[in-house]
Design a protein that fits this description.
Helix content: 10-25%
Oligomer: single chain
Number of domains: 2
Distance between the termini: 53 Å
CATH topology of the largest domain: Thiol Ester Dehydrase, Chain A
Strand content: 25-35%
Number of strands: 12
């Protein structure tokens, strides 16, 4: 196997680096691809940031909605993971974000704090809060609850890497050594880059197949599932499946509306070959709107229910 000319593209180079870094257990491909960087993390808080780069921005150069959602989810969960040990994992129960309308055109920072644990219930649930900022401006505030679950069959969850040290800038990667999943991801990145270079489409929207279709009273979306959007246990990453619902909900109303808030309830893991979203406009007034979006696994099982608020742009 030999390097192709398209491998000189900045996005493909980022993917190759991410694949190499992903061989250190503890992160997802997207965590490495979008280059989330931890400034600090312990049992009480986490600070993680991302810079706008070719693979992580939307059509106007702002941090893409998907990346914002992943950043929020990661920050909210990380400040809880240090308390639970390596034989447990966190599963998102609910997540809410309230946006200010500030467009994150620069480095986006999520500062998150562990708040409490749910009392008087079976099982363990941790609660955390976050603030997303860009420079001196507040982009969003959020909160979440996470179920603390044992790892399957007594396995150990590797710690999130690159917290106490920075990842190497140019890790070695022999293309002959790629496994099937790594080759699948690389081929998908190459294809998306090639298509978007010709069509002018946004890379990330194409890479994630985020292309909602309008229907009467709402919108629908189908996203191809695969290792490019999986988390560390093989399900669709929590921030990505939330973003699938957010993007579909926004499409239902159109460009005249700003997504102002979202509340999501996680029901089951995102699994199967295709993830489907169906957004229904519940209310559309003169200045505000409400959309309800169901996100389902390939089997038809509901994975996520999203209720979002929207404000008409000036």
């Amino acid at each position: 196997m030999y390097s192709s000319p398209i491998d000189d593209h900045v996005i493909v180079k980022k993917a190759l680096r991410a694949i190499a870094l992903n061989r250190t257990p503890g992160y997802s491909f997207c965590g490495n691809f979008f280059d989330f960087s931890y400034d600090s993390a312990d049992q009480d808080h986490s600070i993680v940031h991302i810079k706008p780069e070719a693979q992580s921005v939307g059509v106007s150069g702002q941090i893409h909605t998907v990346v914002q959602a992943i950043l929020a989810d990661m920050g909210l969960a990380t400040c809880l993971r240090y308390n639970i040990g390596d034989r447990h994992r966190t599963a998102t129960v609910s997540l809410s974000l309230q946006f200010t309308g500030v467009v994150p055109n620069g480095t986006l920072v999520a500062t998150s704090y562990s708040q409490a644990h749910l009392q008087g219930v079976q099982g363990r649930q941790g609660i955390s809060q976050t603030r997303l900022t860009c420079g001196d401006e507040l982009v969003a505030i959020g909160s979440a609850a996470f179920m603390i679950l044992p790892m399957p069959e007594g396995s150990i969850l590797p710690p999130v890497p690159w917290v106490s040290q920075k990842p190497p800038a140019n890790p070695l990667l022999d293309l002959e050594s790629l496994n099937d999943k790594e080759q699948w991801i690389l081929n998908r990145v190459r294809h998306s880059v090639a298509v978007c270079e010709k069509s002018g489409q946004n890379f990330l929207s194409h890479f994630f197949t985020l292309a909602p279709q309008l229907i009467e009273g709402g919108a629908v979306s189908e996203v191809e599932n695969g290792p490019h959007i999986g988390n560390r246990v093989g399900h669709v990453q929590g921030g990505i499946i939330l973003a699938i619902g957010m993007v579909c909900a926004s499409a239902a109303l159109g460009d005249e509306w700003l997504l102002s808030g979202v509340t999501a309830t996680y029901i089951s893991p995102g699994e199967g070959d295709v993830i489907r979203a169906h957004a229904v406009i519940v209310h559309q007034g003169r200045m505000t709107a409400v959309v309800k979006t169901s996100v389902k696994s390939g089997s038809g099982k509901v994975a996520l229910e999203v209720l979002s608020t929207h404000a008409r742009l000036a």
